[in-house]
Design a protein that fits this description.
mainly beta, rod-shaped, 4 helices, 298 residues
Length: 298
């Protein structure tokens, strides 16, 4: 049987793991943070994705007729096909789905001062005594992802995330690195210790009591990442009775979809919420007189 194609065969796309990175200084008044996106995920279109793009057989045949002038008897988007697998025989490119992180924006940056815990130290003896009034507490830094999707895709690789947040005024930095499956709502956490128990000794007189409070700032960052999936490659068609002298044709799927008014874009959105503790300090004040006796920042 005669065959022909109407597409340009392009080199295979380089596949690089999708990365979402956030870096900069955490400042609620003058935000100075940037989100960086890179990579892609490319795969032969699955049946699930074929359905997601609305490429059922009848609709695809109608789109081919709009583009090429005659409705085919058979239409394919991937191997295998009858007649010895036309994609392999003629070295035609199967329809591939490419997913890229298209754009990102920071929705909000907030900070909330908290009293994480407090503890009373009291000298119940009849003599002055030295107390270590340092206090610590384990808290959770968290990152969560919530997805909204137009359709489900068959994405094989995980997305890599890296967040490097610099805290102002000598507050150090907070970092997160992890991987997660595309489209999966999830929450990850890490336990950190705020406060300190060293170098916080104070002399208390008999019957004197002090209140030690552990303070910290809890930062919140909300990010939205938009992903875009599209198709490229060739749809292979068969005409039982030759059309323009050939039975088999390979047609550019993008052109076919455009002419057939089938959208070649599926958009998905991920909202990432980051919550973390920073800038902890311990204050100590006399319980009876409310006078501050000590303040140590960590």
């Amino acid at each position: 049987m005669a065959a022909r194609f109407l597409i340009l065969l392009l080199p295979a796309l380089a596949v690089a793991k999708i990365n979402v990175e956030l870096s900069g200084k955490f400042d609620t008044e003058k935000p100075n943070m940037q989100v960086y996106l890179s990579g892609n995920d490319v795969g032969i279109i699955s049946q699930n994705e074929q359905n997601a793009f609305g490429l059922n057989v009848d609709r695809l045949k109608d789109a081919v007729r709009s583009y090429f002038g005659e409705r085919p008897d058979d239409v394919y988007v991937r191997s295998p096909t009858p007649w010895g697998d036309l994609y392999k025989t003629y070295d035609w490119t199967q329809v591939t789905r490419t997913l890229i992180p298209k754009r990102a924006k920071i929705l909000s940056i907030e900070s909330q001062p908290l009293i994480v815990m407090e503890q009373v130290f009291e000298n119940n003896s009849s003599k002055p005594a030295t107390f270590n009034v340092g206090i610590t507490q384990q808290v959770q830094n968290t990152v969560s992802s919530t997805w909204s999707k137009e359709a489900s895709l068959s994405v094989s690789q995980d997305i890599s995330y890296g967040f490097d947040i610099e805290i102002l005024n000598g507050g150090g930095s907070t970092s997160f690195t992890y991987s997660n499956s595309w489209g999966e709502n999830t929450e990850k956490s890490e336990t950190v210790t705020v406060g300190a128990s060293n170098d916080m000794e104070i002399l208390l007189q008999p019957k004197q009591a002090v209140v030690a409070q552990l303070h910290a700032n809890k930062g919140f960052i909300k990010i939205e990442v938009e992903y875009e999936a599209s198709l490229s490659g060739a749809t292979v068609v068969n005409y039982d009775k030759t059309y323009q002298g050939h039975h088999f044709w390979a047609l550019d799927i993008e052109a076919v979809m455009l002419t057939g008014r089938i959208s070649n874009t599926i958009v998905s959105k991920e909202v990432i919420n980051i919550a973390f503790f920073s800038q902890s300090k311990v204050t100590v004040q006399d319980r009876n007189y409310n006078t501050k006796l000590m303040e140590v920042t960590f």
